[in-house]
Write a structure and sequence with these properties.
single chain, 376 residues, mainly alpha, two-stranded antiparallel sheet, 2 strands, Acyltransferase family protein
């Protein structure tokens, strides 16, 4: 079993990686025009993986790493466990409720509210990963990680789908989609599909494995390995092995974000481990920190900016302005006034998204300067 160092050291590279990931999330969620998006800023249609498909698993991976750094010291004394568990339960519930509020806003139509969602998935992954980190050792965590990946593969590829026949990985006919319709009904899943949900119930199981991948890597970073360079080497080694295994598994269990396939867990987790290893080496080992501040500003209020940006974007779509006799949303008016007259359709859409990210950076910078950190 790998021993951990009880220090409360905070990794600047982890804050940087979190901030970079959240800024990218805001960017891809808020294009100026959804009809004109450059391919890297769109999700894969089904199988395969674009840069945008890396963002959510990277964040869940970071959640796992953060659990280790936040709880390692307190975990060592079993008397602290009840307090830690209470804190995990409280935070998970808060995240889940915020996710539901985001789904309900602005009309609060409870009859058709989407129950699954991004914040809801983060809440569940944080809950399970945090409890497992407290209660079991690193070897058991690794075994659970492997069991989840293998079990999910077997379930998705061998268990028949009621009403459809043999196991399959189709959008509407896979076992996960069937389960979402059974549990949530079509009224409470992703409105863009109505028959399945990318953050559905069954696919949350391998998402938990992504969180556990982060926990395992966090244990490496907190371990008593002799040098920081050794830790970097192990992060790259584990990451590259997982990346290759993900590519191999892709040949018969395709990399797919919506299904959160086991190959996708290994592929994205491997990349996340190597990216964190690179950030750790440059920022914490070599001491190059001047470029980190903009993303650290995003990282310390990550959940806050994700939630608030969603509320603001929807509010801007609700506010109507009369332009030349036509009623348009405030968002559409600003986009058509400041971007579309001067840029091509795709460039205007990207410029609108970048502007949204920069405006939020200014807000977060002022919060950072005043030491306002909203802990969720």
């Amino acid at each position: 079993m790998m021993q951990t160092v009880p220090s409360k050291q905070r990794l600047l590279s982890l804050d940087f990686f979190r901030g970079l990931t959240v800024a990218a999330m805001i960017l891809v969620n808020n294009p100026g025009d959804w009809s004109h998006i450059y391919a890297p800023f769109a999700h894969a249609a089904w199988n395969s993986c674009t840069p945008t498909d890396l963002i959510f698993p990277f964040f869940l991976f970071i959640v796992g790493v953060s659990i280790v750094f936040a709880m390692s010291s307190a975990k060592q004394d079993s008397n602290n466990h009840p307090k830690l568990i209470k804190s995990i339960l409280k935070r998970s519930l808060t995240l889940f409720v915020l996710g539901l509020l985001l789904s309900l806003f602005p009309f609060f139509n409870f009859a058709e509210v989407r129950i699954p969602g991004v914040l809801q998935r983060i809440a569940i992954v944080y809950l399970i990963s945090g409890l497992l980190f407290i209660k079991v050792d690193s070897k058991a965590l690794f075994r659970i990680f492997i069991v989840i990946l293998l079990s999910y593969w077997l379930i998705m590829t061998f268990v028949p789908v009621p009403g459809f026949g043999p196991a399959n990985l189709g959008k509407e006919t896979n076992l996960g989609a069937w389960l979402d319709r059974l549990i949530f009904t079509e009224a409470h899943v992703w409105k863009s599909a109505k028959t399945w949900d990318p953050e559905g119930l069954l696919t949350t199981l391998p998402a938990i494995a992504t969180g556990l991948f982060g926990v395992l890597i966090g244990l490496v970073l907190k371990s008593n390995l002799k040098t920081q360079e050794t830790k970097v080497a192990w992060l790259f080694t584990y990451g590259f092995i997982a990346f290759l295994l993900g590519l191999f598994w892709d040949t018969f269990f395709p990399i797919n974000k919506s299904l959160w396939t086991s190959s996708y867990v290994l592929y994205t987790g491997g990349l996340a481990s190597m990216v964190l290893g690179l950030c750790y080496w440059i920022i914490d080992v070599q001491g190059f920190t001047k470029f980190t501040k903009p993303f650290v500003v995003y990282g310390v209020n990550a959940i806050t900016v994700f939630f608030a940006s969603g509320i603001i974007a929807r509010s801007m779509s609700l506010i109507k302005i009369t332009v030349n006799g036509d009623l348009v949303s405030l968002k559409q008016y600003l986009y058509q006034t400041f971007f579309t007259p001067y840029l091509s359709s795709y460039d205007a859409s990207l410029a609108g998204a970048i502007t949204f990210v920069l405006i939020w950076y200014l807000v977060l910078w002022m919060m950072y300067r005043k030491n306002i950190i909203i802990k969720v």
